[in-house]
TrEMBL record:
This is Lipoprotein. Keywords: Lipoprotein, Membrane, Palmitate, Signal. Belongs to the nlpA lipoprotein family. PROSITE patterns: PROKAR_LIPOPROTEIN. It comes from Brevibacillus aydinogluensis. Pfam families: Lipoprotein_9 (PF03180). The lineage of its organism: Bacteria, Bacillati, Bacillota, Bacilli, Bacillales.
């Protein structure tokens, strides 16, 4: 009797683990896909994509996350089938650090990083010794430094691409002081800075509109555009292709342009 109970318990444990293990291995369901997003603008856009995909016979279930790491963790572990929130440099950095088998399958939008200020209205007004804020995480620090270089504030060392830090500034003619801060907190500390580089998602949460309020804005050609990402084994699955098609539809493009008024730029 004890042996039978042991076998039964083992069988139930296996079933429980299988149920918790998510959808890893094999093709995805052709009629349903679970997509992870960060809360805010990516969630808003995916709600519109959900409606478009439904017309093509695909049910999109949306799971919203509050940070930038968990949507990739959930994807690797099979809790979701795709995610839509990250840039190519962020994805490549995550893949290197975690040895993750993830693949970008479609470009979506650019959430342009911008320079914002409550003290000056133009880049030309930034003076010698002014304090300039930028994110302290590697991907966004590099992005901000290239933004500053594009604005003519600094010059980076030759060949620095994807991993620049403040130590890689070759020329700083205005002797600016660069203050590295948590990306989510920069907008809240703008009063203490002359200007700062702020990600669109955090700008919007603090009532800053990139198209209206930025004194310098990242351009459409930026490498930091967003992508839909899936596990590499599922990159050619029909449901994934339908998700990309729905996202890059005329309906979603019109929604993005009307809703965000230049704060988010469609790439199709």
């Amino acid at each position: 009797m004890k042996n039978m109970l042991g076998v039964l318990a083992s069988g139930l444990l296996v079933l429980a683990l299988a149920a918790c293990g998510g959808n890893t291995g094999g093709a995805l369901d052709e009629k349903k896909i679970v997509v992870g997003v960060t809360s805010g603008l990516h969630e808003q856009i995916m709600e519109k994509v959900k409606g478009v995909a439904a017309k093509d016979g695909v049910e999109v279930e949306i799971k919203a996350f509050s940070d930038f790491q968990m949507p990739n963790v959930a994807l690797v572990e099979g809790e979701i089938d795709a995610n839509s929130y990250q840039t190519i440099p962020f994805l490549e950095s995550y893949k290197r650090e975690r040895n993750a088998e993830l693949t970008a399958v479609g470009e979506t939008v650019l959430n342009p990083m911008g320079m914002y200020s409550k003290k000056v209205k133009d880049i030309s007004e930034i003076k010698e010794g002014d304090k300039i804020g930028l994110p302290n995480d590697p991907t966004n620090c590099d992005r901000a430094l290239h933004l500053f270089q594009g604005a003519g504030l600094i010059k980076l060392k030759d060949g620095i691409e994807g991993e620049a830090t403040v130590l890689d500034i070759a020329d700083n003619p205005r002797k600016l002081e660069f203050v590295e801060l948590d990306a989510a907190q920069i907008a809240k500390q703008l009063d203490d800075l002359t200007a700062a580089a702020i990600n669109t998602s955090y700008a919007l949460k603090n009532n800053l509109n990139p198209g209206r309020d930025a004194i310098f804005l990242e351009q459409k050609e930026s490498k930091h555009h967003n992508v839909i990402v899936v596990r590499t084994e599922n990159k050619d699955d029909p449901v994934v292709q339908k998700l990309v098609k729905a996202y890059r539809s005329d309906e979603v493009k019109a929604f993005v342009e009307e809703t965000f008024q230049g704060s988010v730029i469609p790439l199709w």
